[in-house]
Design a protein that fits this description.
Elements lengths: L6 H5 L9 H28 L1 H20 L12 H30 L5 H38 L18 H18 L2 H10 L5 H6 L1 H15 L4 H25 L4 H6 L1
Helix pairs in contact: 2-4, 3-4, 3-5, 4-6, 5-6, 5-10, 7-10, 9-10
């Protein structure tokens, strides 16, 4: 005789009904269409404002150049199509940034019906924290790292009147945009570290004790990652490695909080 389900089993149920494979594929297609529509609309808007977006991304460099010389400086492009493709990249960059929360929401709406209620409660905070942490990482790169790094690189200029040939920066629009996008994405993705480690701890793959045990090796790995993702200057590397270390320590605390309790502790509770 089958035993009736307990209250916990009744509460922790899947809210979805069984669906044929074809219906799942149709649902997936619908979510992908919504995500693509959001990206395309965001791309059209961002392309319309691509010059303003590029000016915003170039503002840290423009401010430092103006502060350094007191004069307006310029950026150049050396290929006929370079400026056009740069604005396309700007629009794609902005569209990906803006439509990311919508894409994640559509992914959640597709996956959530197949999850238990307890799994939804466990995953939803991580889903909400992902864009917030990405924005924090991007903001750190733009408002803190860019000014310090650009000042460091511009310190190698030799102005006219100091003897010899002057060495002045004339940045290419495409190269500058590539560097800026690389740093923003590097910091944004790196700031997902607490989400990844805490989620792994939540499902029991890793634990806070293991994170503490391999802390020294993790620190070395973070400096290696920072050296790979950032330009070859100590300011950018420290600017990424130090926040990663802080986020790692935060992940240890979060892992301790969410990791499954040992069996003996659960039995004694």
């Amino acid at each position: 005789m089958a035993t009736p389900p307990t209250n916990q089993e009744t509460e922790d149920q899947i809210d979805d009904k069984p669906m044929p494979l074809l219906d799942h594929l149709i649902e997936l297609r619908t979510r992908l269409i919504y995500s693509m529509l959001a990206f395309m609309i965001a791309f059209a808007v961002c392309y319309y404002f691509s010059k303003q977006i590029y000016s915003f991304l170039a503002q840290p460099l423009a401010d430092i150049l103006h502060e350094k010389t007191g004069q307006e400086r310029r950026m150049i492009f050396t290929a006929l199509t370079e400026a056009f493709f740069t604005y396309l990249k700007v629009a794609m960059f902005g569209a990906a940034f803006i439509s990311f929360p919508i894409t994640v929401t559509q992914l959640w709406l597709f996956v959530a019906p197949g999850l238990y209620r307890s799994e939804k409660k466990a995953l939803l905070p991580f889903l909400m924290a992902t864009p917030v942490l990405f924005l924090l990482g991007a903001s750190l790169a733009y408002y803190v790292i860019f000014p310090m790094a650009w000042r460091f690189f511009l310190s190698f200029e030799i102005p006219a009147g100091e003897g010899g040939l002057p060495i002045l920066l004339e940045a290419k629009v495409s190269e500058y945009l590539g560097l800026v996008m690389k740093l923003i994405f590097a910091f944004g993705i790196a700031f997902q570290l607490p989400v990844g480690l805490t989620l792994l701890a939540r499902v029991g793959i890793i634990g806070s004790a293991g994170l503490k045990k391999y802390r020294r090796y993790s620190y070395v790995g973070m400096f290696i990652v920072a050296a790979i993702l950032t330009p070859p200057d100590i300011i950018s590397q420290l600017g990424l490695a130090v926040p990663l270390i802080a986020l790692y320590e935060l992940s240890v605390v979060m892992a301790k909080w969410v990791e499954p309790k040992p069996v003996e502790d659960a039995d004694s509770a």
